[in-house]
């Protein structure tokens, strides 16, 4: 699912693109801490948190002191024999003296990303929240610094075409499995097992009640934690909510079509966009139809004076890359222009933007952990639904789901609890935030979750995507989340400000692509 919402893409894309900044949950933007927070001079974290079994450390890109360490867990939690693996733990201590006893634990997206790996981003993004609460990040088993399960994937500066090829290729997956089996039992990297790890870390750190913050796949992880350890959860804020029956990546296709159709409709309802692209719907249909008949070929030079590189574009790749662009409200205004240029035979805007996303995405995910999760929790259950009906009429078709099925034939299948796919029903105050244009976790999944969480509030951001970055008034959701964590309840929360969160106007001039890429340094 790739937490580009709620995990986010990091690096230059996350913090430069059109003023966009989004942490693991992908919401909001960095803002300066209030004067009171800046003027406070608390004693060092190491002295104020001497009870924590961690050491003082410096996080690159983040001012102040952090606490770092590792915690060993049994890989096989049932037998408690054999291999132990170390989990990377980072705590960003509260910056003011009156510290609340319940910290915020962050759950990363993917599946395949690790929250501790993005401690600097989280610390900057949640500076206000950190004033009175510790922020805790643990790389989930198989990610980041916790026995990383990584597999080589196509694509590099020397192989740009690889970025336009399937990320999961059966022969490479088989070889990766054989290599990783030397250091891991790949059946034991499922969400439920990992959430029991997290609870053991919670106890080790000495916290009783904790607050949860998750985005994208991180919302699945958080829901599983809520079900398995409800007595230790004070509240949970979930962004880009994944449903417990949202089998990955099967539902990417209809979610992507819904989002893209909404963008086309919004363009045609906008005077400037409609004037520039009056036939956008038919142009999109024609581009998809052409690619269905034969791939497109583009030639592009990424640096002035460098030779052009040939790129082949299949229909599935086109649909997938457009879907990725819709993750970010900061990029959504470019999509009609990209479609129009492709219709005219100019594939350079599409290729150039894709070459921003794909290297970042493929570098973030621990593919081995991703497969251990999806091959146990998702792919085996495709037969519970009408796959053909779900995929019918979509732009993506079976491009992603077929890859995942074939990859899982080369992987192993772990066991999951019998009730894993049942909706989570616990009396935990829960804030559920969705973007209406989300191309991977559309609002329907938050609606489903809310029906079973009696103390929940669902918030729909009308122009939000999988991320909320790049929208105006980002303080709306930031303040809402902070108020929620302060009171530990959804009661009385004012959500009216979401109507003021607007994306930028649709771009109609090809120069807009250059401006975005220049901002990214590309």
What does the radius of gyration come to?
22 Å
The largest sheet, given as strand count, sense and whether it forms a barrel, is: 9 strands, mixed
DSSP strand content: 5-15%
Mean pLDDT: 90
Would you give an account of this structure?
The protein has helices spanning 11-16, 35-39, 45-48, 119-125, 170-180, 191-205, 217-228, 252-268, 271-276, 280-293, 315-325, 335-343, 348-364, 367-377, 387-391, 399-409, 443-451, 475-487, 511-520; strands spanning 55-57, 66-74, 84-92, 104-107, 135-138, 210-215, 233-239, 296-300, 309-313, 430-435, 456-461. It has 522 residues and is of the alpha/beta class. The strands form 2 sheets. A 9-stranded mixed sheet has the order 1-2-3-5-4-6-7-10-11, sandwiched between helices. A two-stranded antiparallel ribbon has the order 8-9. Strand 10 (430-435), helix 17 and strand 11 form a beta-alpha-beta unit. The model is unreliable at 3-42 (pLDDT under 50).
Features:
alpha/beta; globular; 11 strands; disordered N terminus; nine-stranded mixed beta sheet; 522 residues
SSE diagram, text form:
Blueprint: H1 11-16, H2 35-39, H3 45-48, E1 55-57, E2 66-74, E3 84-92, E4 104-107, H4 119-125, E5 135-138, H5 170-180, H6 191-205, E6 210-215, H7 217-228, E7 233-239, H8 252-268, H9 271-276, H10 280-293, E8 296-300, E9 309-313, H11 315-325, H12 335-343, H13 348-364, H14 367-377, H15 387-391, H16 399-409, E10 430-435, H17 443-451, E11 456-461, H18 475-487, H19 511-520
Helix pairs in contact: 6-7, 8-11, 10-12, 11-13
């Amino acid at each position: 699912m790739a937490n580009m919402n709620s995990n986010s893409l990091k690096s230059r894309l996350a913090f430069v693109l059109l003023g966009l900044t989004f942490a693991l949950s992908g919401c909001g933007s960095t803002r300066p801490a209030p004067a009171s927070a800046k003027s406070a001079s608390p004693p060092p974290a190491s002295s104020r948190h001497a009870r924590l079994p961690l050491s003082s450390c410096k996080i690159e890109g983040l001012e102040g002191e952090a606490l770092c360490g590792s915690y060993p867990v049994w890989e096989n939690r049932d037998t408690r024999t054999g291999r132990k693996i170390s989990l990377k733990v980072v705590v960003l201590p509260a910056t003011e003296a009156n510290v609340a006893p319940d910290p915020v634990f962050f759950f990363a997206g993917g599946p395949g990303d690790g929250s501790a790996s993005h401690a600097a981003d989280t610390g900057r993004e949640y500076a206000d929240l950190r004033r009175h609460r510790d922020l805790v990040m643990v790389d989930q088993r198989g990610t980041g610094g916790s026995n990383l399960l990584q597999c080589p994937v196509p694509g590099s500066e020397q192989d740009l075409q690889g970025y336009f090829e399937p990320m999961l290729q059966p022969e490479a997956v088989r070889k990766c499995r054989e290599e990783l089996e030397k250091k891991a039992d790949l059946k034991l990297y499922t969400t439920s097992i990992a959430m029991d790890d997290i609870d053991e870390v919670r106890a080790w750190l000495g916290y009783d009640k904790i607050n949860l913050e998750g985005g994208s796949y991180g919302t699945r992880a958080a829901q599983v934690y809520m079900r398995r350890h409800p007595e230790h959860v004070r509240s949970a804020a979930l962004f880009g909510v994944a449903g417990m029956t949202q089998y990955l990546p099967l539902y990417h296709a209809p979610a992507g079509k819904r989002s893209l159709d909404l963008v086309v409709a919004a363009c045609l309802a906008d005077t400037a966009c409609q004037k520039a692209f009056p036939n956008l719907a038919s142009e999109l249909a024609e581009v998809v139809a052409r690619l269905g008949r034969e791939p497109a070929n583009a030639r592009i030079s990424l640096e002035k004076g460098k030779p052009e590189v040939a790129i082949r574009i299949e229909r599935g790749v086109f649909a997938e890359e457009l879907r990725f662009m819709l993750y970010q409200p900061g990029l959504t205004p470019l999509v009609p222009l990209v479609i129009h240029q492709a219709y005219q035979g100019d594939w350079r805007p599409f290729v150039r933007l894709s070459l921003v996303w794909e290297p970042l995405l493929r570098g973030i995910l621990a593919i081995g952990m991703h497969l251990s999760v999806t091959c146990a929790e998702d792919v085996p259950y495709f037969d519970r639904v009408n796959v053909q009906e779900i995929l019918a009429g979509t732009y993506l078709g079976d491009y992603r789901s077929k890859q995942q099925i074939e990859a899982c034939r080369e992987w192993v299948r772990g066991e999951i609890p019998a009730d894993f796919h049942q909706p989570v029903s616990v009396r935990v105050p829960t804030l559920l935030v969705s973007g209406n244009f989300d191309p991977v976790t559309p609002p329907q999944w938050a609606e489903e979750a809310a029906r079973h969480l009696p103390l929940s509030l669902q918030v729909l951001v009308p122009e939000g995507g999988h991320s909320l970055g790049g929208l105006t008034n980002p303080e709306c959701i930031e303040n809402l989340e902070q108020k929620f964590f302060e009171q530990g309840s959804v009661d009385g929360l004012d959500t009216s400000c979401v109507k003021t969160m607007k994306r930028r106007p649709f771009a109609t001039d090809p120069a807009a692509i250059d401006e975005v890429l220049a901002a990214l340094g590309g």
